[in-house]
Write a structure and sequence with these properties.
single chain, alpha+beta, 29 strands, binds flavin-adenine dinucleotide, FAD-bd, FAD-binding domain-containing protein, FAD-depend_C, FAD binding
């Protein structure tokens, strides 16, 4: 049975449409639906008629903003991706169900990643299936689970993303077919994925795209047992730095057929762990193996696959210079960081050099200046790290639920927070310069159940950061509170040209080292004193920082515009999080390396430096990333872009990776 309907849009009359019978059933109660024999009976091989939904068109929609246009495009794509309602193609594939909310009181807790009865309830609601207990757990897998305890909610809840395996679901509970058949895609909430999408990860993309590329590369002759063989010549690429950006660039380039050498000034992860231990316990700072330099455990997972590719990895190898001929990079000069300074350098020829050195390679920045590489100062943020007892943050954020945190062993996750404030805005309507005088102040790298750590790379400069172990079991919660600074704040350091921001950082790191009194002791001040511009206590509350804290006038460390912005924002935070300003809250100085203080100009398509051919600046150090994920993604895109230039890859990167985000240097992780 079909109904004829006329859909009308302002100014536009659509042809009558036929609506499938099952649509009428939508008005029935859900229990009636289960019993209804007429709707979408399986197997059904003929397609059903197209369905068009029409919204009232308003003036605004006739001239939609870019955002709305994109949203609409996404929705169209979403509908195109899902097989038509009722079509047999819906009998397989996966539906990703997101934003499934389960009340915290009904959930087994943060460590449970199975499918609980409460989650089945949420799934049933999403797919409009009336009897949750009939849904087989085996058809669902949890992809993501997070906790939402915002005060605007009536009660705290866990939020799930779940993949629904349609074939399994229909095999185990055929009565779900009606509901799958008419499931309507919704952007970011209910999305269809055909089977192939699941294996469409980076490695599969690479293996598909590298096929057929070998015949395009140059041929070189090699001599083997006296006879001459012709082999495709692999372009040689140096990747400097084994952080996430360097690793992902190496992975892509290696998979696509380049001969990659990955050079890392620091130690491999095992020795780096020992060096960091010696720093935390015996105050021994290794200038080449510390919190900023060297391989990290998380990254070594990726290294495993890069080993598989026979990418040559050289630890303890610092790149000191570039070999430049006729405006093009032809190679690099390296030294062994375990040997004494001044020991013999080695020259290595390469066809291209990927620069993935992170934000603390100040010597590398100076070397780039020597070669007149285009660098420009970039905004970043500086400030102090605040630490509270974790139990205090739990109770501010969760109220009575805080009792269930139990140092990371309980049902409820250890509480964190994320704060963004804008201070000094004034009256924007009457003051045209208001935005010029306002400053962003935000929490950065909040570490629940964590500790404050030393991230200096030089003993005369002191800077800190924070970290948590996976259990988040420590007694403390710490987070940086930082204020945005930009090139017009670096006026005093203009003589350093593009390195003005680096010198700005260095200045406050030196001041902090002096305030702490040396030996990596950190200057610290109670937050109550900091906001009152005084130092009243000589005995500070305990701190997680292991090398010692010294009572100091942190309110005198930074220029007034930074101190005042921090003070104002702390007072604003107290209004939202009563208890944040407390005698137990301790500020530590200084947090300066939130992101790179400069940007190395590069071409948006090729990723090549705009001033030096053959150089590919990527990741956080080049000013194109601000965290592990954005650095890895930048490395991946650069890998494809460079492979394209080396004729190792011929596809359209964005067609399968999506459009590259160009503004990721200020990500607040
Ligand atoms: C304590 C701490 C905690 C952090 N926590 C988080 C977090 O929770 N989440 C998050 O997203 N981010 C976090 N970050 C930031 C994150 O680590 C960086 O954003 C990210 O690693 C940047 O990646 P990258 O590849 O651009 O550079 P990096 O990871 O910095 O890697 C650069 C590499 O290049 C090497 N190198 C530098 N110069 C040379 C040279 N001349 N020759 C050879 N090798 C060289 C360095 O030794 C280094 O290993 C944290 C950082 C620190 C210090």
């Amino acid at each position: 049975m079909a109904l004829a309907a006329a859909a009308t849009v302002t100014g536009l009359r659509l042809a009558p449409l036929s609506i499938p019978a099952s649509y009428i059933l939508r008005t029935c109660t859900s229990h009636a639906l289960l019993a209804a024999p007429v709707s979408f009976s399986r197997p059904r091989r003929s397609g059903c008629d197209a369905v068009v939904r029409c919204g009232k068109r308003t003036g605004k929609r006739r001239y939609p903003s870019e955002k709305k246009r994109l949203e609409r495009r996404h929705k169209e794509l979403l509908h195109q991706a899902a097989p038509e309602e009722g079509s047999p193609d819906r009998e397989s594939g996966y539906w990703r169900l997101s934003k499934l909310a389960v009340p915290a009181s009904d959930d087994p807790g943060k460590d449970f990643t199975g499918v609980s009865p409460a989650l089945l309830q949420a799934i049933a609601k999403a797919i409009k299936f009336p009897v949750a207990s009939m849904l087989p757990e085996e058809a669902f897998s949890v992809i993501r689970k997070s906790f939402d305890a915002r005060k605007v909610l009536k009660a705290a809840q866990f939020i799930y993303t779940v993949d629904m395996d349609v074939k399994k679901l229909l095999d185990m509970e055929p009565r779900t077919w009606d509901f799958i058949a008419r499931l309507e895609p919704k952007l970011g909430v209910i999305e269809y994925m055909p089977d192939e999408k699941l294996v469409n990860d980076l490695i599969s993309i690479l293996s598909v795209n590298k096929n057929g590329s070998d015949d395009e590369v140059e041929i070189r002759d090699t001599i083997n047992n006296g006879s001459i063989h012709s082999e495709p010549k692999k372009p040689r690429v140096a990747v400097i730095g084994s952080g996430p950006s360097g690793l992902f660039a190496s992975l892509v380039l290696g998979e696509l057929g380049a001969e990659v050498t990955l050079l890392e000034r620091g130690q491999a992860v095992e020795q780096r762990g020992r060096d960091i231990g010696a720093l935390a316990v015996r105050r021994i700072l290794q200038s080449e193996s510390n919190f900023c330099f060297g391989e990290v455990l998380l990254e070594s997972m990726y290294l495993c696959s890069v080993f598989l590719l026979q990418v040559t990895i050289r630890f303890n190898t610092r790149v000191d210079d570039l070999i430049v001929e006729d405006g093009q990079v032809k190679g690099i000069v390296v030294s062994d960081t375990k040997l004494h300074p001044g020991s013999v350098n080695q020259k290595l020829p390469f066809d291209a050099v990927v620069l993935a050195v992170g934000h603390s390679a100040r010597d590398t920045y100076s070397m780039l200046c020597k070669h007149n590489v285009d660098l420009s100062p970039k905004s970043f943020a500086v400030g102090l790290r605040i630490e509270h007892p974790q139990e205090l943050i739990n109770s501010i954020q969760y109220s009575e639920l805080a009792a269930e945190v139990q140092k990371g062993r309980g049902r409820i996750p250890v509480a964190d927070y994320k704060i963004v404030k804008s201070v000094g805005e004034g009256d924007a309507e009457n003051n045209v310069n208001a935005t010029e005088h306002s400053r962003g102040c935000y929490s950065f790298c909040m570490c629940p159940g964590g500790q404050v750590v030393l991230t200096s790379t030089n003993p005369s400069e002191l800077c800190i950061n924070g970290m948590s172990f996976s259990r988040r079991a420590s007694k403390w919660a710490n987070s940086a509170l930082v204020v945005t600074v930009s090139s017009h704040d670096f006026g005093l350091f203009q003589s350093h040209g593009p390195l003005a921001g680096v010198e700005f950082q260095r200045e406050y790191e030196r001041r902090a080292a002096a305030m702490g009194g040396g030996n990596f002791v950190v200057p610290a001040q109670c937050v109550t004193d900091f906001i009152s511009n005084k130092l009243s206590v000589t005995t500070l509350p305990p701190s997680s920082y292991r090398l010692g804290v010294r009572p100091s006038k942190l309110h005198e460390l930074f220029p007034p515009y930074i101190t005042e912005a921090l003070q104002q924002s702390i007072i604003m935070i107290e209004k939202e999080m009563p208890g944040f300003v407390s005698k137990e809250a301790l500020l530590h100085g200084v947090e300066t390396r939130t992101s790179s203080p400069l940007q190395i100009s590069r071409d948006g398509e090729t990723y090549e430096s705009t001033s030096l051919q053959g150089l590919y600046p990527i990741g956080e150090g080049a000013g194109y990333a601000g965290g592990i994920l954005s650095a890895a993604v930048d490395g991946m895109y650069c890998g494809f872009a460079l492979a394209k230039q080396l004729s190792l890859f011929h596809g359209d990167i964005e067609s399968f990776l999506g459009k590259a985000q160009k503004q990721t240097s200020f990500v607040k992780y």
